Predict the structure of Methyltransferase domain-containing protein.
Amino acid sequence: DPNSVYWLPSDEEEMDRLVGQHFALKTLFEGNIPQVAFKMLDFEKGVKILDLGCGPGTWIMDMATEYPNSEFVGIDMCDVFPTNIRPANVTFQVSNALDGLPFEDNSFDMVNFSLFILALKKDQWLPLMKEIHRILKPGGLFHSREASMLLLGNQFVQWASQVFEQRLIERNQEPAICDKIKDIMQEAGFDILSCVKKHTYPARPDHLNREFLWDIKHIFKGCQPFLQDHLGLTTEQYPTFLQQLVTECQKSPEPRWDIVSTLGRKST
């Protein structure tokens, strides 16, 4: 899409990253959605849920298998949806959320939305939140997960992160969105039910933190076209940079990568 500012490719390697990231986030937050959502919506009986920017559909497929009586719709601007295996309660469509959401008012019980930090410009967050608010039923829920920049770490990690952040700013995007999203959701009309920030530590050797280290490496890999020149690297040097980033992320002072899960509700 020529109007998209999204950084990452839609190739097989990126799909693998999104699948790995899905399960890492599920483990980090102990579930696909905050527990309080289950007190408000009856997923067993059946609700209608939209996954915005669903990518290869990992979140949807996971949820749809768990809640066969609920209806799931996934939209993404790229057709990277699963073709062979698709539960009966799942549909996908190609659509760019920035053109408005192709759904009627008050038509969904819940909207899920993850990691749009690389997809939106600063001034696109609020209009999109208002669109999400519009298509939710009264009492409907909006679940968002957003990431921070890579924080702390040694000089090398800080340098790489600062270049990344600077590129976002130059492209009129919002590097600090994870700390601002709660306020934007409120401005769009949502009541905030929960807002939880989790820290990940890519230097630590446990399985979950290793998953996030792998994720960070592959984000930097996918963003090569936007970062390479600004890091002062050639195409030939970039793989070495990625390996060094992984090595430096495991040194002290340890870096941190924050992810914020926010649940909002449209008032009844």
User: Anything to note?
Assistant: The radius of gyration is 18 Å. The chain has a mean pLDDT of 90.
